[in-house]
Specification:
This protein is an alpha/beta fold. It is built from 13 helices and eleven strands. It has a seven-stranded mixed β-sheet, with helices on both faces. Helix 1 crosses helix 10.
Length: 342
């Protein structure tokens, strides 16, 4: 497989496909009242070591937008990184589903929010009538491929609590962040102040299912209404939940993430002597600088990867995933080392 464009391009894992087939047997209560969805909730209570509510969702965009909307009034300000997915890639979904909340993008090195910069943006916002500070959205792993440590998350969480902000986490690659740090999921979420987690599965082996994990359970009824009203409560939820149950069973989600991270590390090890690695690699995303002739040669040979002009016209993003093999990585590296490079 020569596709390094995104972990979204990879197939569904066999364990997850098998679970969907099993869920197809017989009739089952609709709209989330099924036994599979109930088991997913119990799994999450165990994984996160606390009582949670869960909401299977079709996509990460919906997970982000609806979870932020549950934490934010229409007149609220949502602070996020300038390159966060909710800011750059989701066509204003947070503003739409919250009925008007304003995103406040904040620059930060390595794709991370710095507490001092957040505090400065917060103080500036409070001097105006543009919006009322309401929510902090943290992406982990970040769009830059970096991962927040537990200490960094705790610092942001403490700032949010002191400022009376609720905290949402875009965890499209939460599994990769947990695998990279070795920390407990609870430490990376509610113990650091996170109120709602958009827990990704699609990028890590699911067919098309993500999950909102709500730690602030008193908001469950409101979030349920928002999800239903927004058309994101599927009648046959068992097929979403079946994917998620398999994903969370026997640590499949972490095994997949560890493998993806290891493949990124293997890629860096093999190509770093020959091309520039633009950013630190913590998880499964690698940013590289290729000469145009090398990029053309790789693409002509069938390798696929994404241009990343935000970092420069000659910068590209390479993403590994649960289905990336050592042979895939080595073939790509060999092309660079043995013939692709000018």
């Amino acid at each position: 497989m020569k596709d390094f464009r995104s972990d979204n391009t990879l197939p569904g894992a066999p364990e997850i496909l098998d679970a969907v087939v099993r869920a197809n047997a017989g009739s089952m209560t609709s709209y989330g009242g099924d036994d599979i969805t109930a088991r997913v909730r119990r799994q999450c209570c165990e994984i996160f070591e606390t009582d949670v509510e869960v909401f299977p969702i079709l996509s990460g965009i919906a997970s982000n937008a609806l979870s932020v909307a549950a934490l934010t009034a229409p007149w609220g300000a949502v602070f996020c990184h300038a390159n966060a997915h909710i800011e750059r890639e989701e066509l204003g979904a947070v503003t739409f589903w919250s009925n008007g909340a304003k995103l406040v993008p904040i620059d930060g090195a390595d794709g991370k929010l710095d507490p001092a910069a957040v505090a400065e943006a917060l103080a500036s916002m409070r001097k105006s009538d543009v919006a009322v500070p309401a929510c902090l959205s943290i992406t982990n792993a970040t769009e830059a491929g970096t991962v927040y440590s537990v200490a960094e998350l705790q610092a942001l969480g403490e700032l949010a609590r002191s400022a009376n902000l609720r905290v949402q986490m875009d965890g499209a690659r939460f599994a990769n962040a947990v695998a990279a740090t070795g920390a407990e999921p609870a430490e990376m979420s509610w113990r650091a102040g996170v109120d709602a987690l958009a827990f990704g599965a699609t990028k890590n082996g699911a067919m098309s299912a993500d999950l909102i994990v709500l730690f602030r359970r008193e908001l469950a009824e409101e979030l349920s209404i928002r999800i239903h009203r927004g058309g994101h409560r599927p009648s046959k939820m068992r097929f979403f939940s079946a994917q998620l149950e398999a994903y969370l069973t026997d640590g499949l989600w972490l095994r997949h993430a560890r493998h993806a991270n290891l493949m990124a590390a293997r890629l860096v090890e093999r190509i770093a002597p020959h091309v520039e690695i633009v950013r630190r690699v913590d998880a499964n995303i690698v940013f590289v600088r290729f000469a145009p002739s090398l990029a053309d040669a790789l693409q002509e040979d069938g390798f696929q990867f994404a241009a990343w002009p935000i970092l420069g016209d000659d910068v590209y993003r390479l993403v590994t995933g649960w289905a990336t093999t050592e042979a895939d990585v080595d073939e790509f590296a060999a092309k660079i080392v043995g013939g692709g490079a000018p």
